[in-house]
Structure formats: structure tokens, C-alpha cells
Amino acid sequence: MLKWRLLTAAVLIPPLVAALFWFPPPALAALVALFIVIGGWEWAALCGLGAGGRMTYVALLAAFGGALVLATLIDSDAGFAVLLFAAAWWLWALVELVHGRRRSLFERRGVRLAGGVLVLVPAWVGVVYLHAGDPMRPAALLYVLVLVWLADSAAFLAGKTLGRTKLAPSVSPGKTVEGVIGGMLAVVLLAYFCGKIVWQLEARALWGWVGLAAVVALVSVVGDLVESKVKRVAGVKDSGRILPGHGGVLDRIDALTSAVPIFALGWRVLFQMAA
């Protein structure tokens, strides 16, 4: 299993990173669309739709998301509006996960189907928003990918060594509070180093940058938990089998679906404050 995980990562990561810097925004949007479509297919399957229903769901998802992505490429303010809506959605998802009600709204298929659109489309828009317009933005997109990977890896290590308190045992039994704290500390250190040494930010901007990293690390956990909840309702461990050793596309991008739009929103706010 580990061999397949490493092999899949070695094959996919280099061309994806190259695409961030070499592809023009429309081409990257089309590449991301491939992951969104596959993720939408997997999400529809988790919601119990048959082949015909999945095709309809994916077609509607692609049409709706594609229209918003096109609007973002034409006018970044359209993308900003989508990111604001995404922030409200992820806040609602967090409240719903911690509410503790006997029957979660995520157990309703209609909510899950709508949730798939709200999970995948803003992530697509967020990638395009970060990539278009500013020469620095491809680097910012790579940065948020590294942030999420670091948060996940550090949380895993901290949880294995120090984990005692379960974060959400009914949703994701392996996650611990200590692991989440470890992940947040790791990304805060990375953000401080990049802000202070690499980008040489002034104090106010630096602490805003560090704060954004902490928020992104926390929100990435929410994205992970939402997909875990949907899989638990569906009674499956993985969203699919398309990536050897990793499961489905959703299993690899779950944390990114929440982290990317929130990071893109924070990026815009921080730069407006600095202007």
C-alpha cells in the first residue's frame, strides 16, 4: 500500500506543480475541472445515485462551476463573491459537525447532494482566483498546497505520539485534538518563516499572514471531516479507487476543498489591508 501511495504521488505531483507555473489560467481551470468532475462523480456515488443520476449530477456541477469559473476569469470580483459564500458554507458545516444533534443534516441526501456542489465549486473557483492576474499567485497556490500537506502530516505525527483526546469520534475516530494543534503549530511556523524570511513582511502583515495560516489549517480539518461524514453515512471507507494507494480523488482533495477558498479569501483581504 505504501509503495503504491508513493508511486502515485511521484507520478502526479511534479506535473501538477509544473502546471501551476506554466499553464495560463484557462488551461489550469480546465485541468482542475478534471478533478472536480471525478470528485463530483464520487460524491454522487456516496449519495447513492445510480449511473444516470451521477451523470446528470456531474453535468450540472460542471455547468454551474464552469460558469462561475468563467465569471472569475472575466472579473475577479465575481470569484470573491463565491469565496465569501464558501466561507459562510464552511462555517455552517463546522457548526453542524459540532452541534451534536441526534440526526445530522448530513444524513439527508438532499443536503449531501447540495453540499457536494458547495464543496467542489468554490474550491475550483478558489484555484482560478489565486492563479489568475498576479505573477505571485501561482506561488501562493503552491504555498497553500504545502500548508495543507504539512498540516495533515504534522497532525498525523502529533496524533500518533501525543493524541489522547478524540476530536470527532463518531465521524473520524483517528483524529485527535492534539493532532490538530500539532498541525496548526507546524503551519504557523512555516507561515512565520515564509513571511519573515522569504517575503520580508512588515509586522502587521506578518501576523495577519500567520493568522491566516492557522485558520486555513483549522478549516482544512473541517473539509476532511465533512467528507468523512458523507463516507460514514454511505458506509464506505474510501470515496473511490482511481488513485492506487490513495483511494478516490475526494480522499486526496477533501482538506483542499475547504482550505483553498478560505486561503484565497484571506489573501484578498490581507492585500487590501496592505494597499
Automatic annotation (TrEMBL):
Keywords assigned by UniProt, alphabetized: Cell membrane, Lipid biosynthesis, Lipid metabolism, Membrane, Nucleotidyltransferase, Phospholipid biosynthesis, Phospholipid metabolism, Transferase, Transmembrane, Transmembrane helix
Pfam families recorded: CTP_transf_1
Family matches, as InterPro entries: PC_trans
Topology term for the membrane: Multi-pass membrane protein
GO cellular component: plasma membrane
Classification via PROSITE patterns: CDS
Top-rank taxon: Bacteria
Functional pathway: Lipid metabolism; Phospholipid metabolism; CDP-diacylglycerol biosynthesis; CDP-diacylglycerol from sn-glycerol 3-phosphate: step 3/3
Location in or out of the cell: Cell membrane
Main enzyme class: transferase
Keyword Zinc: no
Protein name in UniProt: Phosphatidate cytidylyltransferase
Species whose genome carries this gene: Sulfurifustis variabilis
Upper taxonomic lineage: Bacteria, Pseudomonadati, Pseudomonadota, Gammaproteobacteria, Acidiferrobacterales
